[in-house]
Amino acid sequence: MLIQKKWTHEKALIGIWHITETEDQLLSLHNYPVKWLNELQAISHSGRRCEKLAVRALLRELTGADHTILYDENGKPYLEDGSFKISISHTTGYACIILHPDMAVAIDIEANTPRAAKIQQRFLSPSELKLANHSPGFVVPLLLWTAKEALYKLISNPSVDFVHHLQVIDIKMDKQEMKGCVKDTETSFTLYFNIETDFVLTYVCSNLEHKSPQNLE
Predict the structure, then answer these.
(1) How far apart are CA 124 and CA 164, in angstroms?
(2) Which residues span the domain enclosing 57?
């Protein structure tokens, strides 16, 4: 079910779907194209099929229309009719979408668990580790992970390395903002986040050209 629909100050539209339905209940919400249903049934895991169905239901709730979601060579989603820029994310029990008519967008949602904190050495630089360890608990490492996931989706280059190429410079908990950049490009971004009981969500909107770092191997 749709639990949140909001316009951001960047005029992007964000929706969050709490996946409480069974697969059959999600299938009953809309009439899906036969080709898409065949592709859906090729997914072996029922949880993944529910996530796909929730995303389709959420997109219809947000736009009032059925849109075909396609994916480019890097796995980045886009709408066939080009009516919106889109980014999609899901975690245990939730799916989310961000849409914007003009600006590039990226979103990440993660379950509110200590998983990211346990592996933070794998995706944080030394300066970011200091930022993470400055605060107790596991929320800051989780925020940093969602920020880097969002930047990674925005750049859409599979060769980007989380430690060496993506940098979170600052977190402002009171404003629910983070500053991030892509190293070697002189490009910085403001990311916005929400911390909920079950999940953390971070998104970014940009009308800048998204350059990849020059020192990719």
Answers:
(1) 9
(2) 2-102
Burial class (CB in 10 A: 0-12, 13-18, 19+), 50: buried
Structural contact between residues 173 and 204, judged by C-beta atoms closer than 8 angstroms: no
Say if 213 falls within a structural domain: no
pLDDT tens by residue, 14-45: 999 999 999 999 999 988 888 889 999 999 99
**CA 209, CA 187: separation in Å to the nearest integer?**
9
Mean pLDDT of 205-216: 65
In angstroms, the CA 156 to CA 136 distance is 32
- Do 201 and 107 form a contact (C-beta atoms < 8 A)? yes
| pTM across the whole model | 0.92
Q: What CATH code is carried by the domain that includes residue 7?
A: 3.90.470.20
In a domain, 177, yes or no: yes
